[in-house]
């Protein structure tokens, strides 16, 4: 198995998890495709890039950030190939690798903005409930802690793959006050919570949020208790295809993740994500600032070349 295939397998097996990390790994897969290419001609290199993009884009189905970045960055690489007819193969490869690395740098810059806006939104002292593991959410919480805010965090354990443990460990290491709860145990903390803060895998044109399964229940419990509900989402999480009526596909994972050997007659359901209606969401914390769900697509379209232009 070559290193690109190995990386794609790691994404499928959740060794790489979370939309941003998956998108970054996608960019890395493009870089490795170029570095390992034995293409003799520029046409062959472009064809290899197109083929790799197809495989990378669909490695997990509910990841528009990965798809948006693959479309944009590989289109750009192909335009570099077409626009530099006299460049040597080696030179072209170096240029493409540099371009791809620039996408990762831009992601880091967006993350820094989100962390700043998100940290400002948090109270000086308070309780935040979160779910799953979102690098965007932990980025905000760590930034708020660094800014001197006294934030306690309740992490839902997030069955069946326990991503809540990753969040809890990361935040505890950073010095935050952390409690891990079984998923449905979150109800008892909600009355005291100041805010629910989750990540995003996809945001639709109507402002609905697709995130780790259990997020929609959390949003409803928050609303019942008058607790604000925010999602931290880089604008690449917006799926431009939803404007044409396409529904975000929800990844259904192997039932064995839930129950290795269920008894006969028991069907096991294991959706990775669920949809939270925009009406439960106070706002999305993006790199451009905090935007209401109904405005997200307009702001996102300024960033994403694909779609309405
Ligand atoms: C992860 C998950 C995260 C989002 C956002 O699901 O639902 O909340 O991907 O993460 P999984 P980030 O573990 O199945 O990938 O903010 O890091 O993009």
Description:
By secondary structure, this protein is α/β, with parallel strands linked by helices. The protein has two domains: about 5-110, translation initiation factor eif-2b, domain 1 (Four Helix Bundle (Hemerythrin (Met), subunit A), Up-down Bundle); about 115-309, Translation initiation factor eif-2b, domain 2 (Rossmann fold, 3-Layer(aba) Sandwich). The chain has helices spanning about 5-10, 20-35, 40-55, 65-85, 90-120, 135-145, 165-175, 185-190, 215-225, 295-305; strands at about 125-130, 150-155, 175-180, 195-200, 200-205, 210, 230, 275, 285, 290. The strands form two sheets. The chain has a seven-stranded mixed sheet. A hairpin with a 2-residue loop joins strand 9 and strand 10 (about 290). Helix 1 (about 5-10) runs antiparallel to helix 2 and helix 2 (about 20-35) runs antiparallel to helix 3. The longest helix is centred in the middle third of the chain and has 33 residues, at about 90-120. The protein is globular, with a radius of gyration of 20 Å. The mean pLDDT is about 95. Bound molecules: ribulose-1,5-diphosphate. The site of ribulose-1,5-diphosphate (RUB) has 18 residues, from helix 2, helix 6 and strand 6.
């Amino acid at each position: 198995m070559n290193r690109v295939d190995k990386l794609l397998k790691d994404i499928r097996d959740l060794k790489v998890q979370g939309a941003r990390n998956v998108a970054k790994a996608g960019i890395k897969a493009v870089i490795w495709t170029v570095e390992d290419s034995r293409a003799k001609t520029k046409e062959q290199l472009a064809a290899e890039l197109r083929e790799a993009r197809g495989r990378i884009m669909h490695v997990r189905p509910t990841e528009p950030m990965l798809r948006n970045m693959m479309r944009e960055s590989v289109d750009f690489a192909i335009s570099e190939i077409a626009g530099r007819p006299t460049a040597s193969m080696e030179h072209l490869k170096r240029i493409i690798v540099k371009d791809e690395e620039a996408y990762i740098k831009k992601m880091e810059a967006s993350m820094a903005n989100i962390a700043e806006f998100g940290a400002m939104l948090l109270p000086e002292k308070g309780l935040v409930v979160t779910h799953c593991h979102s690098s965007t959410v932990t980025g905000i919480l760590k930034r708020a802690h660094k800014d001197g805010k006294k934030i306690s965090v309740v992490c839902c354990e997030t069955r069946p793959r326990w991503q809540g443990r990753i969040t809890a460990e990361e935040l505890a290491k950073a010095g935050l006050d952390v409690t891990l709860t079984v998923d449905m145990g979150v109800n008892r903390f909600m009355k005291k919570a100041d805010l629910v803060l989750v990540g995003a895998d996809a945001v639709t044109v109507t402002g609905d949020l697709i995130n780790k399964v259990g997020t929609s229940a959390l949003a409803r419990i928050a609303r019942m208790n008058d607790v604000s509900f925010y999602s931290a989402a880089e604008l690449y999480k917006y799926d431009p295809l939803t404007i044409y009526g396409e529904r975000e596909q929800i990844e259904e994972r192997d039932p064995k993740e839930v129950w290795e050997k269920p008894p006969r007659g028991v069907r096991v359901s294991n959706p990775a994500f669920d949809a939270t209606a925009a009406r439960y969401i106070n706002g999305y914390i993006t790199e451009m600032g905090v935007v209401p769900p109904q405005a997200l697509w307009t702001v996102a379209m300024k960033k994403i070349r694909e779609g309405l232009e």
